[in-house]
Specification:
alpha/beta; Beta Polymerase, domain 2; five-stranded mixed beta sheet; two-stranded parallel ribbon; 4 helices
Length: 183
């Protein structure tokens, strides 16, 4: 890599090549088109949350040479998780990048249709990030109460009152992180 791309910064970490976001496309194109590697199949893209940064991980294989995987990794800060899209190099990246965007919040710049694939538009947060706090399943919000009652489900008064207070306070039914004493 360093011969082909002078000045490129590549680290080998856990049997993967860690690249800067700006180097991803040219390295992927080289590995795909090179007669030596012919890594023409992208089998997997996934996002990983390491708390101090996010990582997009790519597994490349050569169908022709029956080799692989070669693992590429791109690390980005949590508050600016932006990586170039590989859809122009590997068409199979389209849905996998959407999944990593939806679940982890990694923005793949240049993606032809980057939108949520599992969660609905307007969903707040990214469910697979370690700092994501889900709704508390044991607490109803006012919209839940209304939906249940429209469908002829009797909601106990104490749950309705709690949902009403949440709505008036402009709060959501967020689960509470355990305190130090509970851990």
């Amino acid at each position: 890599m360093e011969e082909r791309f002078p000045g490129i910064q590549v680290q080998i970490v856990n049997q993967g090549l860690v690249l800067k976001p700006g180097d991803l496309i040219r390295v992927a194109e080289f590995l795909k088109e090179s007669e030596e590697f012919k890594l023409n199949y992208l089998s997997l893209i996934t996002g990983v949350d390491y708390l101090e940064h996010l990582e997009s991980v790519y597994h490349l294989y050569s169908i022709d040479l029956r080799t692989g995987p070669v693992v590429l990794k791109v690390r980005v800060p949590r508050d600016n998780a932006r990586i170039p899209s590989l859809v122009s190099v590997f068409r199979g990246a389209e849905f996998q990048e959407r999944e990593a965007y939806d679940m982890m919040g990694i923005v793949y710049e240049g993606h032809p249709d980057l939108r949520r694939i599992f969660m609905w538009e307007g969903f707040e947060g990214f469910p697979l990030r370690k700092d994501y706090i889900p709704e508390d399943d044991d607490v109803l919000e006012w919209e839940d109460v209304e939906w249940l009652e429209r469908h002829n489900v009797k909601v106990p008064e104490d749950l309705k009152e709690h949902a009403r207070r949440l709505k008036e306070a402009g709060k959501e039914a967020r689960a509470q992180k355990p305190t130090e004493k509970e851990v």
